[in-house]
Amino acid sequence: MSELIHIKRPDGKDCPAYLATPAAASKGAMVVIQEWWGLNDQIKGTADRIAKEGYTAVVPDLFRGKVTKDKDEANHLMSGLDFMDAASQDVRGCVQHLKARGAAKVAVGGFCMGGALTLLAAVKTPEMDAGVCFYGMPPLQAINASAIQAALQLHFANDDDWCTPDSVNQLEKHLKEGNVDFELYRYDAKHAFMNEARPEVYEADCAKLAWTRALAFLDRHISGWQIAG
Description:
The chain is α/β, with parallel strands linked by helices. Helices cover 36% and strands 24% of the residues. It contains six helices and eight strands.
C-alpha cells in the first residue's frame, strides 16, 4: 500500500513524503532519498520495491512537489536545496516518524544526490541506525566521520565523472580514519547504474548485485522489528 503523507520535522515544519508499506507485518523501515529529478515515479517505484521486500519505506519530497526530466532543471533544483537542512530536518524527521510508528531500527538510503544526503544524514541524524549510499557524496569536509555511529554500505561506479574513483578512494580513507563501520563496493558501470528508467546508463547485472548486497545489509542491521500499521 502507498500514500502521500506529511511528516513533522524536528523544527516543527511539515515535510511531504511518499509512504510505501508491506502487505504483511513490516520487518523494518527505511528512508529512501531521491535523485535530483524529484519525487518521481521511478523513486516511488524503488520505495514500492523495498516495501515488497517487507520494509516500510518513506521518501521525503525534498523539492516540495517539483519534478523534472530535464538535466538543467534538475541541476537548478538540486543547487537550490539546502543539503544540511534536508539531512537534519527532512530526513531526520522521516527517521523519527518511522521510529514513532514502532520501528526499533531505521535505515537511510539514497541515490546520487540522495547518496550524498545519506552520508550527511549519518552525521546529522543520530537516530539513524544504518545507511546505504549509491554513487553520491558531499564534500569530505562536510562529513565528520567520528560522529557517525550508523553502519554504512556504499556503492560506486568506476566510470563516474562526479564520484570519481579517486574521490571514492579519498572517502574510503576518510571513513577508515573516523573508525566508521562500513563496506564499500565498486562496479564497472556508469553513474546512476541502478536507475532502470535511464537505459543509457542502467546496468542490469550491476544493479542486481548491488540490490542483493543492500538487502542483505538491511537484513543484518535493521530487520526483525515489528511496525504498527
